[in-house]
Amino acid sequence: MLIDAQGSSASPGELVGAAEVQERRFRPVVVWSGIAAAVFVLVAGELMAYHIDALGPLTSLFRDYAGTPKSATTPWAGFLLALVGVTARIRVRALAAAIALDLIFVAVRTIDGRPFTVGNGPTIVLTVLAVVVAVRWTGVRRETALRTAALGALLILATKVGEIWLDITAWSCPQVLDPYVQLADRALGNPAWLVGHALDVAGPAPLGLVRWVYFELPVAAIVVAIWQLRGVTTGAWPRHHLVRTFLALGLIGPIWYVIFPVVGPVLAFGPQGHGFEIADVWPNVVPALPSSVQSMPFDTITPRNCMPSLHTAWALSLFIHSRRGPRWLRWGGVFWLVCTVTATLGLGAHYGIDLVVGAILCMTIESVLREPDRGWDIARVRMVALGITSFTGILLCTRYCAVSMAKYPFPFGITILGTLAAVAFTFYTTWFAANRQVLPARKAETAELANP
After folding, report:
1. More confident residue, 97 or 3
2. pLDDT tens digits, 157-204
3. Which is higher by pLDDT, 4 or 339?
4. In degrees rounded to 5, what are phi and psi of residue 15?
């Protein structure tokens, strides 16, 4: 069903750029080390989940194969990403098989009275496709298909690991730092309260739109990633693409959830605190300014996943990677960024400081990854150093100067926004300005410029 009629032979188009692909081939030790690391993380996550009585990544993955998937979007996102590396004929067959299997699972769940969802079909077909490619195909065609299949699988597995990590943050951090962030946010004018109140006034339609955008970020990410990777079957692999940034943010960002645990205004100051909130005042009333501040206890269920705002970081990276695309893609990147920022604040999921730190984290990681052939010139070093310093400085200021930030909002607000502007300006001049200096690089950089 998924085997090309031409067997393992490559079409003429797939042979174009073979030398470049061979040049960038991963060594077997790297591949097997990556597989071993993934298995170790999944097993460790499953054991930890058993210890804290949560859903483990292996159990969640098994449900994607034979049960009720926890996410309907992620399996399809990873599957569509994997299909970029195969021919149109196999793509159509794989899509048809995944849809058919999903319909069968939906019918069975409907008969059993279980919830409606999808995701089994793409998970099963992606696995079968990867096995067929590894066993039956050869050469550049095989390597390209395996690379895109690995990206798709990694996206799915990273989500599974991320879910148990969120449970670990709730289990390991009984105290949260929301009182500090709320005070520091006064320097920015309490944007979570302002946008939350504005969405309440706007009515259900705008609220529903931004909520959908907020939860369906993988949809937009896959659109941009597929556009960037559209030429890989001809050997034109970009040196950098959105998936690399997404995975790097997902690896580094959550570390700070246990260093700086925060649950968000709708929980710490709103109606969803389940009795742990300081006061049920969000988004209508800003809490009175206290004379002192300290951490507050919270339940062992809610993830501490606010600082930094990874939704903002991911949406900003999507915006950045859409800049060299066609007009529809560029406008789509703007739309998703604006709606995501509105949702993170308006739904009470984040404070303004979270968004600032998330944006700085995104530009810093993006600067580490972009244009690898350029090397670590002075411009890259300057940008990364500025990003790390700004990220650290704002977190330390929020933790140890929160009361002062609330008492003197104007100077602190100007400083924080000025820092963000300085990082953004430096990022732009380093990577996008027309007069920027770029060191000579190999021919592969041409693909990088065409597919950021």
Report:
1. 97
2. 999 999 999 999 999 999 999 999 999 999 999 999 999 999 999 989
3. 339
4. -85, -15
Residue of 364, 336, 175 whose CA lies nearest to 260: 175
Cis peptide before 179 (omega within 30 of 0): no
Q: Are 379 and 403 in contact (CB under 8 A)?
A: no
Instruction: Please state, in angstroms and rounded to a whole number, the distance separating the CA atoms of residues 133 and 86.
Output: 10
Three-class SS state of 1: coil
* Consecutive H or E run containing 50: helix 28-52
pLDDT score for 13: 33
DSSP, res 230 = T
DSSP code string of 243-272: HHHHHHHHHHTTHHHHHS----HHHHSSTT
Residue whose C-alpha is closest to residue 57's, from 174, 156, 134: 156
For 177, list phi and psi in degrees, rounded to 5: -105, 25
Environment class of 267 (CB within 10 Å of its CB; exposed 0-12, middle 13-18, buried 19+): buried
Q: What are 251-290's pLDDT values in tens digits?
A: 999 999 999 999 999 999 998 888 899 989 999 999 888 8
Give the relative orientation of helices 352-369 and 242-252 as an angle to the nearest 10 degrees: 130
Kind and range of the H or E element at 296?
strand 296-297
pTM over 0.85: yes
Distance of CA 24 to the CA centre of its chain: 25
* Amino acid present at 326: P
Prior bond of 308 cis (ω within 30°): yes
What integer pLDDT is reported at residue 25 of this predicted model?
58
Degrees (nearest 5) of the Cα angle 169, 171, 175? 80
Q: Read off the tokens for 187.
A: 């320097």
**Cβ atoms 444, 240 nearer than 8 A:** no
Both tokens assigned to 104: 């069968």
Cα–Cα–Cα angle for 69, 75, 80, rounded to 5 degrees: 155
As a whole number of angstroms, the distance between CA 307 and CA 262 comes to 6
Cα–Cα distance, 239 to 247 (Å, whole number):
15
Q: 33 versus 21: which is more confidently predicted?
A: 33
pLDDT at 32: 78
Residue with tokens 């990206």, as numbered in its chain: 151
- Give the residue from 327, 293, 301, 442 showing the smallest Cα distance to 373: 442
Indicate whether 2 pLDDT > 90. Answer: no
Kindly state the helix (H) or strand (E) to which residue 205 belongs, with its residue range. Answer: helix 204-215
